[in-house]
Write a structure and sequence with these properties.
By secondary structure, the protein is of the alpha+beta class. The chain has four domains: 33-46 and 298-372, conserved putative lor/sdh protein from methanococcus maripaludis s2 fold (Beta Barrel); 51-59 and 220-295, Elongation Factor Tu (Ef-tu), domain 3, CATH 2.40.30.170; 60-90 and 184-217, Beta Barrel (OB fold (Dihydrolipoamide Acetyltransferase, E2P)), CATH 2.40.50; 94-181. The chain is built from three helices and 22 strands. The strands form four sheets. Strands 1, 16, 17, 18, 21 and 22 form a six-stranded mixed beta sheet that branches. Strand 19 and strand 20 form a beta hairpin.
Amino acid sequence: MKHVLSGCLLAAVAVVVTGCRSDEAAKPAPAQTVAAQVVQSQLRQMPVSLSAVGTLHARETSMLSAQVMGRVEQVLVHEGDRVAAGQTLAILDDATLRASAAQADASVSAAEGQQQAAATSADLASSTLARYQQLQAQKSVSPQEMDEVTRRAQSAAAQVAALKSQTGAARAQASSAHAMLAYAHIRAPFAGVISARLVDPGAMAAPGVPLLQIDRDGPLELDANVDESAIGAVRLGMTLPVNVDGAQLDGETGKVTEIVPAADPQSRSFTIKIGLNPSKLLRAGMYGTALIPTGSHQAILIPASAVVARGSLECAYVVDSNGVAQLRYVTLGPAQGSLVEVLSGISGGEKLVNNPADRDLAGKRIDAENEVQP
């Protein structure tokens, strides 16, 4: 009897449990509906560019050094000073050079005096010869006297010619001495800006040792290095986008003005020079990047406003065919204005939630307010 009752109780419990499980297996609650704007990713043919980095330089730079040995007495400029063509920038001790120039001038004066005296003697000898020639016609002088007067006139003329040559040599030496004296003043070869001051008063200057560097006034140029594999894409006169971060210039353009024909044997790269437009924001020595087009590729673009950050990862809410949003991690490429390239995680033509902000939309049905093409 007890066994029969136990069986009945077990059967009743099984029926109750079965009934409870049947209730739990009810259909899940419908997904929450959220209003949001929807955009669509698109496939586009995008240009491929190679970045060529370099430094901004003046189109003409001169490194100034002394042409004579001497102690530096004065340096009249500092870095950043603007100077005019011919302006004196530094002065060397010129005592010895001034003495040499004065001695050369004295030699010129002495030679000119001797030449003047010889010319006077030559004029006298010439006049005497003319009178003797008249007397000879009258047969009033002997042949010996006539020969002596003629030879004196010839000797005087020869002495004048010799002294004239000596005077010319003295003047040349004086000119050279004054030129050397002028070398004691270091002058600007053109109008520009002092970009480096490498010497102070008291130092010894010697030929070939740099003292100052001057950059010519005018637009700057970007000297960029291009790998040998991409140099074929560069042509003289082509216009390239140039970015200069230090001057906050983005989207500027420059024209290729020169391509150095020989590659650097160590880096296997060529140097190209890109002329830039005048700008007060640009300074010599700044870091710049030029973008060289090398082809094109098919890219997937989405609005940057559709990207959200989850920790250190970048994500986007993708709306499936049922209208439900799913959070998907993406890998992004370079930006193209308000759009951004997607390298992985999204296919072309997929719909995305735009401006999701901080809302958690995963698993929620999206009621598209309006669908916008990027």
